């Protein structure tokens, strides 16, 4: 024990012999670790936002449709289930919220303009925890329950149609027998959405109104649901596939393949960046330590002449590396935690987003302090850093003492 | 009389093929406990090489070397380290000390390697530091000491664990004559009072004059080996 502890002060003090070089190495390691951790946090926040946007915009974590609806989302691909069987299937402890929807293409016409839209009939109260439509409207109110002739539009669609709350619009769609269905409705509410295409493209009426307009009795086009734990989506979808064997049950990633791809891409990017940064750091460290070892060749010879075993000399150099990398890593960890913490209330991409689209993410990213990721990255750098110093350390320990001591004359 | 060092036809040849250097050639010599031996001779005569062979810092090309009963020429690296730690003290011409440790820590270093407990080694190091005349300088780093003081610390470190023999290679070469003489007097009194065996490689005549046994080397061979009667 006492033999081993003597290398601690030597390793620690040797670190400060060339303090400028040591500080530069610390800084390089710290910046590298910081970049790995913050990149991971922001990529994670970005992916989280993409997934949230993808699922929150009516997709949910999974959906049920009639076979063929996804290829041709029209009125005929509807399905009708005895309410009891649907309730039973959806009463799963994993499912947080679910709702039935009528969803067909149509046209909305005001006095001045018309626009293609997706007409959606649903019970707004059941959209809470399921989609953005469960939030409060930005103005006005939801249609009254039942067959009321009332409609909610996106704010930007209302502007485009030059209409407003209290005015009337006309909805056109195709009913179950292939006839044009037409209905005049009063605008009672306006909603905001983070994606422009949602605000321009979706209009909401009550489920009963939609079913009677399209003459489809109690049929719907879509059942959407969210889970308490999104990771379990595949098993839940598999279960529902068993129950509704003749229907089409999909996960959000089937429905939003782009979001899925982005999630995978970002994981790959974090991995590649970590490796690149690590290689840069490793080169710096090995170089620093090789120089330090080379400069102290005579000293290592002396240590051996004094009877220090090669293995202990190796340990001493590795300990020096452990201190060097360790301090850099800790500094990097601290500045990453601080810089992530600075943005926990959200990083507003608004200025960046002007004109450009955000690849499906929301305007504000919320990076999370994920201590497990932080520790994983830090300890990876630390351990790999020490391992990469094995070579210089081995060189220090291996030197034939006589040649090194003779260098002094 | 106990034999501390025994060399039997020790030979060290550097280089191969045409440019062989016979640094030490068939040296046979015996050193017994309590001797103060000087190893002199012109530069390149093989003094350093012979000391390195005895200290196990280098391996002979042929021949046998025994230190305190152990066959140095046949030992493994780790065992050699152990032998040096417990039986051999070194004093080199310069750069004897570990730069990041204080004088006291440098002296303690050996005892720490040996696994001696902190309070015992601290006490012993302090008393040796006084013995070599460096009272109060224990906290200084080597860079804060003069050349003569550094060499004293090196001697203190070499004797602290009471080794079988101390090998000193040109210990006074970097010192002015007054400082060199002080260092020599120190070694001489340690030899006389503590029966510590010294082999000192040197070409400094004052050092040679001070020793009782004088071995002179030429071209890797022992030229003369004279012991003065007390
Ligand atoms: N590592 C080595 N490689 C090759 N030749 C060496 C080496 N060390 C010493 N020599 C040669 O061995 C001879 C003896 O050297 P050395 O023992 O250092 O002499 P001294 O210490 O008496 O000056 C010299 O000719 C020297 O050049
Ligand atoms: Mg020499």
Task: Characterize the structure shown.
Chain A contains 16 helices and twelve strands. A six-stranded mixed barrel of chain A has the order 2-3-8-5-7-6. Chain A has a two-stranded antiparallel ribbon with strand order 11-12. Chain A is elongated. By secondary structure, chain B is of the alpha/beta class. Chain B has seven helices and ten strands. In chain B, α5 runs parallel beside α6. In chain B, 48% of the residues are buried. The model of chain B has no long low-confidence stretch (mean pLDDT 90). The complex binds adenosine-5'-diphosphate and magnesium ion (MG). The site of adenosine-5'-diphosphate has 12 residues of chain B, from β2 and α1.
Structure summary:
The complex is a heterodimer of chains A (409) and B (230). Chain A has 409 residues and is of the alpha+beta class. Helix content of chain A is 52%, strand content 18%.
* pLDDT < 50 runs, ≥5 residues of chain A: none
Name every ligand kind in the structure: adenosine-5'-diphosphate, magnesium ion
Total helical elements of chain A: 16
Identify the quaternary structure here.
heterodimer
| Count of helix runs of chain B | 7
Largest sheet properties of chain A = 6 strands, mixed, barrel
User: What form of chain A results from the Cα inertia axes?
Assistant: elongated
In total, the number of strands of chain B is: 10
Radius of gyration of chain B: 17 Å
Order of strands in the sheet with most strands of chain B: 6-7-8-3-9-10
The largest interface is: A-B, 28 and 35 residues
Number of separate strands of chain A: 12
Q: What shape does the CA trace of chain B take? A: globular
Order of helices and strands of chain A: HHHEHEEEEHEEHEHEHEHHHHEHEHHH
User: What is the count of distinct domains of chain A?
Assistant: 2
What value does the average pLDDT of chain B take?
90
What gap, in angstroms, lies between the N and C termini of chain A? 36 Å
């Amino acid at each position: 024990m006492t033999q081993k502890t003597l290398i601690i002060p030597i390793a620690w003090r040797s670190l400060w012999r060339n303090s400028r070089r040591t500080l530069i190495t610390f800084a390089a390691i710290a910046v590298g670790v910081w970049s790995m951790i913050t990149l991971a946090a922001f990529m994670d926040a970005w992916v989280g936002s993409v997934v949230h946007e993808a699922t929150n915009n009516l997709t949910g974590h999974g959906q049920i449709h009639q076979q063929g609806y996804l290829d041709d989302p029209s009125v005929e691909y509807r399905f009708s289930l005895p309410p009891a069987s649907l309730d039973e299937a959806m009463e799963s402890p994993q499912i947080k919220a679910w709702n039935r929807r009528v969803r067909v293409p149509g046209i909305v016409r005001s006095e001045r303009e018309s626009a293609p839209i997706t007409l959606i009939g649903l019970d707004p109260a059941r959209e809470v925890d399921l989609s953005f439509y469960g939030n409060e409207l930005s103005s006005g109110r939801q249609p009254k329950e039942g067959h009321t002739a009332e409609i909610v539009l996106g704010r930007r669609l209302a502007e485009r149609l030059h209409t407003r709350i209290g005015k009337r619009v006309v909805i056109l769609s195709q009913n179950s027998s292939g006839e044009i269905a037409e209905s005049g409705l009063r605008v009672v509410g306006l909603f905001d959405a983070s994606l422009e295409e949602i605000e321009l493209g979706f209009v909401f009426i009550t489920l009963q109104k939609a079913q009677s307009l399209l003459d489809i009795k109690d049929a719907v086009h879509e059942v959407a649901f969210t889970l308490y734990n999104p990771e379990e989506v595949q098993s839940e979808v598999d279960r529902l596939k068993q129950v509704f064997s003749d229907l089409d049950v999909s996960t959000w990633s089937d429905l939003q393949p782009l979001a899925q791809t982005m999630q995978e891409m970002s994981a790959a990017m974090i991995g590649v960046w970590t490796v690149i940064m690590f290689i840069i750091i490793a080169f710096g460290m090995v170089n620093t330590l090789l120089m330090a070892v080379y400069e102290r060749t005579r000293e290592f010879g002396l240590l051996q002449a004094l009877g220090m075993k090669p293995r202990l000399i190796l340990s001493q150099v590795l300990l020096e590396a452990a201190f060097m990398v360790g301090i850099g890593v800790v500094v990097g960890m601290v500045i990453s935690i601080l810089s992530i913490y600075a943005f926990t209330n959200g990083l507003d991409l608004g200025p960046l987003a002007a004109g450009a689209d955000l690849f499906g993410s929301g305007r504000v990213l919320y990076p999370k302090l994920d201590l497990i990721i932080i520790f994983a990255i830090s300890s990876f750098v630390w351990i790999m850093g020490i391992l990469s110093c094995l070579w210089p350390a081995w060189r220090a320990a291996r030197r034939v003492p006589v040649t090194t001591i003779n260098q002094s004359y | 009389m106990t034999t501390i060092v025994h060399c039997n036809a020790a030979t060290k040849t550097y280089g191969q093929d045409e440019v062989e250097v016979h640094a030490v050639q068939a040296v046979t010599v015996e050193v017994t406990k309590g001797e103060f031996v000087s190893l002199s001779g012109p530069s390149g005569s093989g003094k350093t090489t012979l000391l390195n062979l005895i200290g196990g810092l280098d391996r002979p090309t042929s021949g046998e070397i025994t230190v305190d009963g152990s066959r140095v020429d046949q030992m493994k690296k780790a065992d050699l380290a152990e032998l040096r730690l417990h039986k051999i003290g070194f004093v080199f011409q310069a750069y004897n000390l570990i730069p990041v440790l204080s004088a006291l820590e440098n002296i303690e270093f050996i005892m720490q390697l040996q696994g001696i407990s902190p309070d015992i080694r601290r006490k012993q190091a302090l008393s040796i530091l006084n013995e070599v005349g460096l009272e109060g300088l224990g906290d200084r780093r080597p860079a804060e000491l003069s050349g003569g003081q550094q060499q004293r610390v090196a001697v203190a470190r070499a004797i602290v664990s009471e080794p079988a023999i101390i090998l000193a290679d040109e210990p006074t070469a970097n010192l002015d004559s007054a400082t060199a003489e002080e260092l020599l007097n120190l070694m001489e009194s340690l030899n006389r009072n503590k029966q510590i065996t010294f082999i000192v490689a040197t070409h400094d005549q004052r050092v040679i004059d001070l020793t009782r046994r004088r071995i002179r080397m030429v071209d890797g061979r022992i030229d003369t080996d004279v012991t003065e009667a007390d």
